[in-house]
Design goal:
The complex is a heterotetramer, with two copies of chain A and two copies of chain B.
Chain A (H helix, E strand, L loop, with lengths): L10 H9 L7 E4 L7 H5 L8 E4 L3 E7 L17 E9 L2 H9 L5 E4 L3 E3 L4 E2 L14 H7 L3 E4 L11 E2 L12 E6 L2 E5 L4 E6 L5 H6 L5 E9 L6
Parallel strand pairs in A: 1-2, 1-5, 5-8, 6-9, 8-10, 12-13
Antiparallel strand pairs in A: 2-3, 3-4, 6-7, 10-11, 11-12
Chain B lengths: L8 H4 L8 E4 L9 H10 L4 E5 L11 H6 L3 E6 L12 H7 L4 E4 L2 H13 L4 E3 L13 E4 L2 E6 L4 E12 L4 E2 L8 H7 E13 L18 E4 L8
Parallel strand pairs in B: 1-2, 1-8, 2-3, 3-4, 8-10, 10-11
Antiparallel strand pairs in B: 5-7, 6-7, 8-9
Classes of the chains: A alpha/beta, B alpha/beta.
C-alpha cells in the first residue's frame, strides 16, 4: 500500500488532540471552521474549565444553542448562536481586542493554508485572488500566548502544506507552537520542527515524504493520542 | 433641548451627502442597522466610503452589500476583502476584482482600535498586529521594550449607523449581548451618530446610569424600529 | 479716589458673566474652586439646558446634594457630593478623557495664576514650590472647544496677573478665549487682547494700569453685564 | 477552577514584594481600596512605586499617603505632586520637597490613557495634552493632520488594589456611580488585580453579562469588606 492510500486522521481527531493541551482555566479563542470542533472534545473532560473568548466581545460562552433555543443577540466568532453560561461577560469590539493584545488569550486555534518549519503560517490570502479575509487572525496570531493550527497535511493535489518557507503571504511570523494535521502532531521548538505523534500506520518516513519541512523525530514519538496520558 | 427622536429612518439620514464616510457595525449578522442602511439605499447618495467588519453577505437581507450593489460605495475599509469561502462571490468581491471599487484591508483589532482612537482623540498608536506581514509594508515600525509595533492612525467618519437595544430620549444607549460588537466604538467615533432602536426609547432616568453603554452626548438621532421594520 | 480703592467685581459676578455665554445643550466642565460658581447662575436661566461633565466620568449631573441627601458614590471634580439628574451616565476615567480629547467639551472654565495676551495661561505650578498639581487641566486646556478663565485681576501684592507673557510654566499655549476678572471681561482675538466689558467705575485707562498686557478697547465697550442682552 | 475569594485583606496581598509597582484608584475620596492599602501597610513592603491620581490627603483615613508616611513608597506617578492649596502639606509633599521620594507628574488624562494602553496591549500613543508645556519637554513630538502630539508609553503595574461595589466569584465587577473612576483601567492594566467588594460577592450568573464593568478574566482575588472594615 502506498502512503497516498493510507487512512488519515479525521478533523475531529485533529482538534481533539489540540484541545487535549488546553489547561484548566485557560482563555481559548477558536477560529471559524475546523477549530470549533475543539469544543466537542471538552465534553469528555468536564472538570477542565475553559473560558471561551470570541472576537465580538463575548467571554465565557457555552456550546452551540439547541435548535429553537437560540438567542438572536448571542453569536460566536462564526456567527453561530451559542448558549450563555453563568459568569459570561460582554465587552465592545475595541475592548475585546484589548484582551487579545494584552496577551490574555492562552491559546488561539486557527486553520491555515500553509505552515512553515520556523512557525510562520498563512491563512488569509491566496495570491491569485485579489484581497483577503484577515478578520481578527493577525491580532490573535501576534498576541495570543500560544498559536495552535489545525490543517490538512496536503493540498487536494497532494502538494505539501507544511513547508520550509510559506509561499503565501503570512499571518504572523514564527508564532505557531503546535500543529495538528491528518498525519500527526508537530511541535515547533527552538531546535526545529518536531514530529511528536503520528497517524496510525504512518511511519516518520511516510510523513516526511508528504512534508517539505525537515522533520525532527521526537525521541518519544508515539501514535496520535486520542485521550490524555 | 434638541429633540433627538426622529419619526422615520429616511428623515434621520436625509442630510447624508455624496462622498461621505459612514460606519456600519455588525458581526455575524447581529447588530447591524439594516433599517438605516435601507434608508441610505433609498436616499441614493453616492461615492460613499464604508467602514465595516465585512462588506456584505450573500443573503437577500439589507446590509453594506446592498449599497455596494447599488454602486453607492466607492471604497470599503474592512477586515474581509475576499470571501472566506471561494464560493461566496458577493457584489463587493465581484466589483473589487473588477476594479470598480477600492478597498483597504485592516486587521479587525486594528480596525476597532483605529475607531477607538478617533473616539478618544488619540493622534496615532502602535500595535503589534500585522508586524512581519504584507499588511505592515510601508508602515512606520518601532521597537518598544524589545517588541516591534506598527503605527496606525485614527479612523473617523461622518456618520455612524447604529443598532441599539434600548435608548432614552437623550441618547443613552444599551445593547444586548453580542449585538454590542462595533456599535459603541462607531457611535463614539463618528461626527453624526444615528441609532435604530429595537426595544424602546424611554424617558431620561429610566436607564441606570451605571448600565449605559454609550453616553447620550455621542448620539444625535434615534428612530424606534416599527413593527413592520427590518428586525433580523 | 485711586484705582486701587475702587470696588471690584465679586467672584460670583465674574462667574455669572462667563456662564452667560454658555449655550443650550453645551457640555460644560467646571474646574475646582471659583469656576463651580458658574452653576449658580444657570438657575436664573432654567430653559438653558447645560450638560455638566466631570473628569471622573460623570456626564449630566446636577447641583450640590442637600445635606443629608448625599449619595456617597457620586461626586464632582471637586469631590463634592452632587445630585443625579435623569439621563446621567457614568464612564470610567480613560473613557472620560476620551470625551475631553475628542473635543466634545464645549467649554471648560478654570482658575489661573496668570493669563497672557496671546491666550497662554498658567494654573498648575509655582516655581518656588517643587512639583505641581496638574489634574485634568492640561487635557482639558488642550482639547476643550473653548477655554474660559475666571481669575482675580491682580496678585495680593498688586502685581498684574494679565501679562504680555506668562512667567509661570503654562498649562496650554494660546487656548484662552474669554477671561473674566474682578475688573472686567476680556476676549482673546486674532487682533489681540480685547477689553469688552469693565467693572462699574473703572475706565479703560484704570484697567490698563492694572494690566501688563496691551489692551485693545472694544468699540462697543460697556459695563460688565449681569444679565443676558 | 481557581478560587478567587480570599478570606481577608492580608492574605490577598501577602505575596506583594519590595520594589513592586501598585495602582491605587480613587477620585474625590470615592472608590479607593482603603482596606487593601491598610493590608499593604501592615505587610510593610518597601520601595514601592505607586500609581494614583493623587498621593494622599490630609485627613486621618487610610490612603496612598499612609504608605508614603510609613516610608514604603520610593516613587509616585500621579497628577498632583504639589498641594492644590498651599496649606495642604501632606507627608508626600513634605518628603518630595525634602527629596526623600521621587515623583513623576502626569496629566490626568494621559495617566488614565497610559493605563488603558497597558490594558489594551498598545505599544505607545500620541496625545495632544501637555504639548507646548514643561511636561512635554524631552518627549517625542509629532505633527498629525496639522496638530502636534506627544508620544506617551503604557503604564502597567504588578498589583492593582481595586474597590468594587459588587462582584461574582468569577471576578466580574460592577461599580456604583463615580466609584468607577480609575478602577476599571487599573483592574485591566495590572498583572494581579485584587478587589475589595462593598455590597456582595454573588454566584456567577447573578450579574447581567451586559452590565459587567470589568470582566472576571482580569480579576485575581476578591475580598468582601466586613462590617468592621473601612467603608468610607
Amino acid at each position: 500500500m502506498t502512503t497516498a492510500d493510507k487512512p488519515r486522521l479525521s478533523r475531529q481527531t485533529m482538534c481533539d488532540r489540540l484541545a487535549m493541551e488546553f489547561q484548566d482555566g485557560w482563555i481559548v479563542n477558536l477560529g471559524v471552521g475546523m477549530p470549533t470542533l475543539c469544543s466537542n472534545y471538552l465534553e469528555s473532560e468536564p472538570d477542565k474549565e475553559i473560558i471561551f473568548h470570541s472576537e465580538n466581545g463575548v467571554i465565557g460562552f457555552g456550546p452551540l444553542a439547541p435548535a429553537g433555543e437560540e438567542d438572536r443577540h448571542l453569536v460566536n466568532a462564526g456567527g453561530q448562536n451559542v448558549v450563555a453560561l453563568p459568569g459570561m461577560a460582554i465587552v465592545h469590539h475595541a475592548d475585546s481586542f484589548g484582551i487579545i493584545r494584552k496577551g490574555m488569550v492562552d491559546v488561539t486555534v486557527m486553520g491555515a493554508y500553509e505552515v512553515s518549519e520556523n512557525g510562520d503560517f498563512a491563512n488569509w490570502r491566496i495570491p491569485v485572488r485579489k484581497g483577503g479575509g484577515i478578520g481578527g487572525a493577525m491580532d490573535l496570531a501576534a498576541c495570543a500566548k500560544r498559536v495552535f493550527i489545525a490543517m490538512e497535511h496536503n493540498q487536494r493535489n497532494g502538494a505539501p502544506r507544511v513547508l520550509k518557507q510559506c509561499t503565501l503571504p503570512i499571518t504572523a511570523p514564527g508564532v505557531v507552537k503546535l500543529l495538528a494535521t491528518d498525519l500527526g502532531l508537530f511541535e515547533i521548538t527552538e531546535d526545529g520542527f518536531v514530529l511528536r505523534e503520528h497517524a496510525p500506520g504512518w511511519s516518520p518516513e511516510d510523513i516526511q515524504e508528504q512534508t517539505e519541512a525537515k522533520l525532527i523525530i521526537a525521541d518519544d514519538l508515539r501514535e496520535m493520542r486520542v485521550r490524555p496520558a | 433641548m434638541k429633540n433627538k427622536v426622529f419619526p422615520d429612518f429616511d428623515s434621520a439620514v436625509a442630510d447624508m451627502k455624496d462622498g461621505m464616510t459612514f460606519m456600519s457595525p455588525g458581526f455575524g449578522n447581529v447588530g447591524l442597522a439594516r433599517n438605516l442602511l435601507a434608508a441610505v439605499h433609498r436616499l441614493g447618495v453616492k461615492d460613499l466610503t464604508g467602514i465595516s467588519n465585512n462588506a456584505g453577505s450573500l443573503d437577500d437581507r439589507v446590509d453594506v452589500g446592498t449599497l455596494i450593489e447599488a454602486r453607492q460605495v466607492k471604497k470599503m475599509i474592512c477586515a474581509f476583502t475576499a470571501p472566506t469561502h471561494p464560493s461566496q462571490i458577493t457584489p463587493f468581491v465581484q466589483m473589487y476584482n473588477d476594479d470598480e471599487l477600492d478597498a483597504e484591508l485592516v486587521p479587525q483589532g486594528t480596525l476597532a482600535e483605529r475607531m477607538r482612537a478617533a473616539a478618544a482623540g488619540i493622534g496615532a498608536f502602535y500595535t503589534p498586529a500585522s508586524v512581519g506581514t504584507e499588511l505592515a509594508e510601508g508602515k512606520e515600525h518601532r521597537e518598544i521594550n524589545g517588541r516591534t509595533y506598527v503605527l496606525e492612525y485614527p479612523l473617523p467618519a461622518d456618520f455612524a449607523l447604529i443598532r441599539a437595544y434600548r435608548a432614552d430620549t437623550f441618547g443613552n444607549l444599551q445593547f444586548r449581548l453580542t449585538q454590542r460588537n462595533f456599535n459603541p466604538v462607531m457611535a463614539m467615533a463618528a461626527d453624526i451618530t444615528v441609532v435604530e432602536v429595537e426595544d424602546s426609547i424611554v424617558e431620561p432616568g429610566e436607564i441606570d446610569p451605571d448600565c449605559v453603554h454609550v453616553p447620550g452626548i455621542y448620539v444625535d438621532r434615534l428612530v424606534k424600529i416599527p413593527e413592520d421594520g427590518i428586525w433580523d
